[in-house]
Design goal:
Distance between the termini: 98 Å
Radius of gyration: 30 Å
CATH class of one domain: Mainly Alpha
Helix content: 55-70%
Structural class: mainly alpha
CATH topology of one domain: Lysozyme
Number of helices: 38
Strand content: under 5%
Largest sheet: 2 strands, antiparallel
CATH architecture of one domain: Orthogonal Bundle
């Protein structure tokens, strides 16, 4: 090769290398800029969360062209909202009409206006508040009307059922209604009893003061009930009511002590107060599955009950098999409680068991019949039908998919998921679903699938009222791992998938507030224990987020639990959520075999109660999909048997 040709090729190669290096550097720089802007945005969000207005403004100024400008503006405005003007807020709302974050700001602004008692501007914004999911804002809305002389007592009674959520607006509403005689002394007593039931010290103190009682004594009744009981019931109505609150608080820890205290002072209470006192003991007795819970309810007579107490009275009757009491209790519930599908189902069953109208029972079953839900599936079976996989609907068209792909709310949601802001992503996604028809929902679910956001696919598919697409509603990913694992362990694959769907909705990044991780939400301590039992080498807690490791550990733990509960899916499901010890204690309190549905409905923990029902309904649907034949939820639930050797009747 001549020297000239060598130099020519060397220079050409050097030029190409330099060009490649420049392109690579430009690509790296281009990729780094969005990452840097994302980091700044995350810092901005944190500054807004800490109400650091100066820092938020400085950070927002550094990302003037960020791809989600509405949130940059929101986080810039939020920390100084208490001092903002109406004009600033209206300018934001006009700039981002029909955005999820605009409704979020409207929520924030209504709280400011309510606290200011600026009813003119509050009344302008409140009708435009779309979600209306803030109890405090609702209280301000009623307070605004009450100030104008409107009677809002009935609406307030329906709203004011959860004292821990009250805060300033609801406290002001209660005081206003009492001052203007829309609320009676009985209404305040109801609020005082609710505050005790919900462990809400602040509301208890405020209500006691309105009744002419002692704030200190109210605090003792809720927080130090033993001291309150030692004082005795007192001579005024409010002091006796505080004593009743203290009885209920004591009964949570020791039903025996509370019962003895009530029997000791019963003669100093009015007949109505005695019934209320027995009712406040009957609730914890029912939640504890105490064998004498029904006796407490009998002594409670016709005492007014909270929604929670009404439902536990019904559960106690259900567990005892007292269909007449169950029917009467359900029929006495306010409509808002009675229309829950659980009580519609059990009302229909009670009608059948007590010789009620077969036509009415059938109407109730037909009203709730639905393949996707626990009580819907049970109602189907009462109507002579079983769960089957439906014929899948027509897939979304190209035009329908194009419309979803162009949806900016969904694009924002994906961006938020990508940078780890799940709350914001859920807000954006769910906001866009509100006004979608069936075809648009199906396309949105498919869009979620294609972007590997399976939890949003499931959530979106659940909103469809027409023919269900089970591939969207009940996905079965990772079959290459779960298929062999469940087969080797002898586990029901449909049940395992039903549990995973409830645990994480197939979001592999899911992490609970207590530290459970992954698809099967395995706790670090559980992972370590199971790994040791099955000989999983080189296990460390960080591996819980590994897909395969998580599924192997979770399925093996399920198998261990199944062995402890003689193969009962109902008990094992309860144990997976609440812990084997709690599930065992609930079973130990059984005196006879009971329907699986009855056991599920009478689980003391509300989270576990809903969890078991959802997992079992999910499993029935998965079985219909996997086996391609009709399925029975009743057969899957079976009967829950008492502990062998307990002397209970089978």
């Amino acid at each position: 090769m001549t020297t000239l040709k060598f130099l020519s090729r060397f220079l050409a190669g050097s030029l190409l290398a330099a060009t490649c290096l420049t392109a690579s550097a430009q690509a790296t720089e281009g990729a780094a800029q969005p990452r840097a802007e994302d980091d700044t945005f995350l810092q901005l969000r944190e500054a807004a969360r800490k109400d650091n207005a100066a820092l938020a403004n400085a950070l927002a100024s550094r990302i003037p062209s960020y791809e989600i400008p509405s949130y940059v503006d929101y986080y810039r405005l939020k920390p100084r909202l208490a001092d903002a003007s109406e004009q600033e807020v209206r300018a934001f709302l006009a700039k981002y009409p029909n955005h999820a974050i605009a409704d979020r700001l409207r929520n924030d602004w209504l709280l400011v206006l309510g606290k200011r008692r600026d009813w003119a501007n509050f009344d302008f914004h409140f009708p435009q508040f779309v979600l209306k999911d803030d109890t405090q804002v609702k209280c301000y809305g009623l307070l605004s009307r009450a100030v104008k002389g409107q009677n809002v007592a009935a609406e307030a009674r329906a709203l004011l059922v959860n004292p821990p959520s009250y805060v300033e607006g609801c406290a002001a509403l209660i005081a206003r209604l009492y001052e203007t005689r829309q609320f009676s002394e009985d209404d305040l007593v109801t609020q005082l009893r609710l505050a005790g039931e919900y462990d809400a010290t602040g509301p208890a103190k405020r209500t006691a003061v309105l009744l002419g009682g002692s704030e200190r004594h109210a605090g003792l009744a809720v927080d130090a009930p033993a001291l309150a009981l030692a004082r005795g019931p007192g001579d005024t109505r409010v002091e006796r009511e505080l004593y009743i609150v203290a009885l209920g608080r004591t009964a949570r820890g020791s039903l025996k002590l509370a019962t003895a205290a009530l029997e000791r002072v019963a003669s100093r209470l009015t007949p109505a107060e005695r019934e209320a006192a027995w009712a406040t003991l009957a609730l914890p007795a029912s939640i504890q599955l105490h064998e004498d819970a029904h006796t407490y309810w009998e002594k409670a007579g016709n005492a007014p009950l909270s929604r929670e107490a009404q439902q536990w009275k019904a559960r106690t009757a259900l567990r005892r098999g007292d269909w007449r009491l169950l029917r009467a209790t359900i029929e006495a519930m306010p409509e808002a409680v009675r229309r829950d599908h659980a009580w519609l189902y059990w009302q229909a069953r009670a009608l059948q068991a007590t010789g009620g109208s077969p036509e009415q029972a059938r109407e109730l079953y037909q009203y709730i019949a639905d393949q996707g839900t626990f009580y819907g599936q049970l109602a189907l079976e009462e109507l002579g039908r079983m769960v089957v996989e439906p014929v899948p609907p027509a897939p979304p068209t190209a035009a329908e998919m194009a419309a979803v792909q162009a949806n900016q709310g969904f694009r924002r949601a994906l961006k938020f998921f990508d940078i780890g802001l799940r709350l914001e992503g859920l807000r954006e996604w769910n906001w866009e679903l509100r006004s979608m028809d069936e075809r648009a929902l199906r396309a949105a679910a498919e869009f979620a699938r294609r972007n590997d956001v399976l939890d949003r696919m499931v959530h979106t598919a659940e909103r469809m009222k027409g023919d269900a697409d089970y591939s969207q509603r009940f996905p079965a990913p990772h079959a290459d791992i779960l298929g062999p694992a469940t087969h080797e362990l002898g586990l029901d694959k449909a049940w395992v998938y039903g549990l995973i769907r409830q645990e994480s909705r197939f979001n592999s990044d899911a992490r609970s507030h207590v530290g459970a991780s992954g698809l099967m939400q395995v706790m670090p301590s559980t992972g370590k224990y199971v790994a040791g039992k099955i000989g999983l080498d080189e296990y460390r807690p960080g591996k819980l987020t590994d897909l395969r490791t998580n599924l192997v550990l979770g399925s093996n733990y399920l198998n261990m639990i199944m062995g402890r509960f003689e193969g009962s899916q109902v008990l094992a499901t309860a144990a997976y959520n609440a812990g084997p010890g709690r599930a065992r204690s609930w079973r130990n309190k059984m005196t006879a075999a009971i329907e699986g549905a009855v056991f599920a409905e009478t689980i003391p923990f509300s989270e576990t109660r809903g969890y078991v029902k959802n997992v079992m309904a999910n499993a029935t649907n998965y079985a219909a999909m996997f086996e391609k034949k009709p399925q029975s939820l009743k057969a899957r639930l079976g009967k829950v048997m008492p502990v062998e050797g307990s002397g209970a009747q089978p």
